[in-house]
Amino acid sequence: MSRETQKPAKQAKYHPRFQWLAIPCIQFAYQFWYGYTVTGRENIPQGGCVVCPNHNQNSDPPLAAAALGNSSRLSVMAKKELFEMPLLWRLFTWLGGFPVDRGKADLAAIKTAMRALKDGKKLLIFPQGTRGTEADGAKEGAAMLAVKTGVPILPMYISEDKKFRRHVRIVIGEPFMPPSGTRDYAPIADDILRRIYALRGEGGK
Predict the structure, then answer these.
(1) Does residue 87 carry a pLDDT above 90?
(2) CB 149 within 8 A of CB 114
(3) C-alpha closest to that of 152 among 187, 188, 126, 128
(4) No. of H helices and E strands in the chain?
(5) By CB neighbour count within 10 A (0-12 exposed, 13-18 middle, 19+ buried), where does 71 fall?
(6) Is residue 88 scored above 90 in pLDDT?
(7) Among the four residues 21, 57, 61, 110, which has the most C-beta atoms within 10 Å?
(8) Which of 113, 97, 105 is nearest to 10 (CA)?
(9) Whole-model pTM?
(10) Domain-wise residue ranges, the chain
């Protein structure tokens, strides 16, 4: 392959200090834009866990990160298309993001996710796989990762229909352990989604 056609390897990696600086900026920006409250931060467990919020708008990932705060190291599974954007992929990676190809069984992404959980990070993954509603159901990825690594699942509800200066509620539920050793992930995935939307009425108006 000629030097002209070779693509440079991406060298960016997770930077805890960058995350430590970025999260307060995200919190400030979204507090100004929406005005949000977080209920249930005391439910965030120590060590690794799979954090599962609902997802219906592009603002959900940063809102979830803002809700978790700087008390934990984050790792975020995100669609690979975000990492194809010039410069932005570096920011995503520095913040703990890594790409997943949603069109196939992405073994590299699965290994990265499992390593993050075993390292004690909070893995942020949207169980619906993409933006959707409660009726769209959940994928099995979050359930599978929690079972294989033996970590708890942390449900999180982010209020929907978010608009400028419309108060946003973020409710963090109680963590729960999935059944160990099972390979039937579908019932766990359904339970995750049920627990997420059960939080809808909590946290005030």
Answers:
(1) no
(2) yes
(3) 188
(4) 6, 7
(5) exposed
(6) no
(7) 61
(8) 97
(9) 0.89
(10) 16-198
